[in-house]
């Protein structure tokens, strides 16, 4: 989550049974270093941007540049900050926040084991904290199509391919530290544009995964002439972590966060709906430090970047084995 200059982790989400007329709020734990002694922030859910909708600036302080978060002796560094220079301390706080976000971005942890097959060679999970994003079965992901999918060259170059996620698994015996993602690959189309592969079929609205159904309903309401739809390029595709750009966010939820509710509503009434997915960063392109990979839990991933005494509160269905 990014909110202005504040980078943080959502620790408490809004209740699902929110009362009508009450704007949902979330609690955010700022990330930097626990020695900065930051406090949790309560804010409206509608003001919290997804992390990949925010480009983290480079680190400013020379002593911290070109270093990974865990390479810094933060206690010694903070002792070097004098009370007479509060500006430098503020810059250090911002830089530690950027570096903590970079650390989270190059890590992942799985949660809620579903099944174990073949003597532990394959373990299925309900969800994964992939970098800054929480991803679960049923979500739709923005993906790059690699040549190993055996699709056309045009498909390999698609900027907007999507994966409807049906399976998350690891193979700890054969390929430890790797995660795999299985589902169906879709291509969104508008107007008279043709699919990237011959024989690709348009999927009826009621057969699409929920996030794409929501997208289609929104676009049919405000821009019906665009004829937004999805075609199926491949079923049961298996992708690896580098193939994933990040989550797909429904336009009617994400666009107001980026452009403001008033502007989006006014443009929608004029039949204008902008392509918001292309404004999101691709996770792997945000890597500025060495890849870390699998961690035991979300708290283990974030480590001392959390405020003192912080607790990440997940619903009971989220079970982290390393927590």
What's this, in brief?
Residues 125-249 form the Cryptic loci regulator 2 C-terminal domain. The protein is an alpha+beta fold.
Describe the structure.
It is a single chain. The protein folds into 2 domains: 2-106 and 293-305, no CATH class; 109-286, SH3 type barrels, CATH 2.30.30. It is 20% helix and 28% strand. The chain is built from 7 helices and 14 strands. The strands form 2 sheets. Strands 5, 6, 7, 8, 9, 10, 11, 12, 13 and 14 form a 10-stranded mixed sheet that branches. A 4-stranded antiparallel sheet has the order 1-2-3-4.
Give the topology, please.
Elements: E1 2-3, E2 6-12, E3 25-30, E4 41-44, H1 74-79, H2 86-105, E5 107-117, E6 122-130, E7 133-136, E8 140-143, H3 153-156, E9 162-171, E10 175-189, E11 201-202, H4 210-222, E12 229-240, E13 244-247, H5 251-259, H6 261-269, E14 293-294, H7 298-302
Parallel strand pairs: 5-14
Antiparallel strand pairs: 1-2, 2-3, 3-4, 5-6, 6-7, 6-9, 8-9, 8-13, 9-10, 10-12, 11-12
Helix pairs in contact: 5-6
Domain Cryptic loci regulator 2 C-terminal: 125-249
Pfam families: Clr2
GO biological process, one term: silent mating-type cassette heterochromatin formation
Keywords:
7 helices; four-stranded antiparallel β-sheet; 2 domains; alpha+beta; globular; SH3 type barrels; Clr2; Tscrpt-silencing_Clr2_C
Shape: globular
Please mark out the parts with pLDDT under 50 across 5 or more consecutive residues, or reply none.
Answer: none
The run of helices and strands is EEEEHHEEEEHEEEHEEHHEH
The total number of structural domains is 2
Our Rg estimate from Cα atoms comes to 21 Å
CATH architecture level-2 label of the largest domain = Roll
Q: Specify the structural class.
A: alpha+beta
Biggest beta-sheet profile: 10 strands, mixed
Question: What is the CATH topology assignment of the largest domain?
Answer: SH3 type barrels
Helical fraction: 10-25%
Beta-strand fraction estimate: 25-35%
Give me the count of strands: 14
CATH class of the largest domain: Mainly Beta
Tell me the distance between the termini.
22 Å
Give average pLDDT, whole number: 92
InterPro entries: Clr2 (IPR038986), Tscrpt-silencing_Clr2_C (IPR018839)
Protein name: Cryptic loci regulator 2 C-terminal domain-containing protein
Pfam families: Clr2
Domain Cryptic loci regulator 2 C-terminal: 125-249
């Amino acid at each position: 989550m990014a909110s202005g200059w504040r980078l943080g982790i959502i620790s408490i989400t809004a209740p699902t049974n929110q009362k009508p007329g009450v704007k949902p709020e979330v609690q955010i734990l700022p990330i930097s270093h626990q020695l900065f002694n930051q406090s949790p922030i309560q804010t409206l859910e509608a003001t919290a941007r997804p992390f990949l909708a925010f480009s983290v600036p480079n680190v400013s302080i020379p002593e911290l540049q070109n270093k990974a978060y865990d390479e810094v002796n933060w206690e010694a560094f903070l002792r070097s900050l004098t009370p007479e220079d509060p500006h430098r301390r503020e810059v250090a706080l911002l830089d530690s926040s950027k570096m903590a976000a970079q650390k989270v971005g190059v890590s992942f942890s799985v949660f809620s084991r579903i099944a174990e097959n073949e003597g532990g060679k394959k373990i299925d999970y309900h969800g994964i904290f992939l970098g800054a994003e929480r991803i679960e079965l049923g979500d739709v992901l923005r993906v790059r199509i690699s040549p190993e999918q055996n699709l056309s060259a045009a498909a390999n170059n698609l900027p907007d391919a999507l994966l409807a996620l049906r399976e998350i698994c690891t193979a700890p015996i054969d390929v430890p530290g790797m995660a795999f993602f299985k589902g169906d690959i879709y291509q969104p189309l508008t107007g008279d544009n043709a699919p990237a592969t011959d024989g690709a079929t348009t999927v009826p609205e009621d057969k699409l995964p929920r996030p794409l159904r929501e997208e289609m309903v929104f676009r049919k309401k405000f821009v019906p002439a665009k004829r937004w739809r999805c075609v199926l390029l491949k079923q049961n595709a298996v992708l690896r972590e580098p193939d994933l750009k990040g989550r797909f966010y429904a336009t009617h939820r994400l666009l107001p966060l980026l452009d403001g509710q008033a502007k989006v509503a006014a443009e929608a009434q004029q039949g204008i709906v902008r392509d918001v997915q292309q404004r999101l960063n691709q996770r792997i392109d945000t890597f500025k430090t060495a890849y870390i990979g699998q961690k035991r839990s979300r708290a283990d991933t974030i480590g001392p970047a959390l405020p003192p005494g912080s607790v990440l509160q997940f619903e009971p269905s989220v079970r982290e084995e390393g927590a």
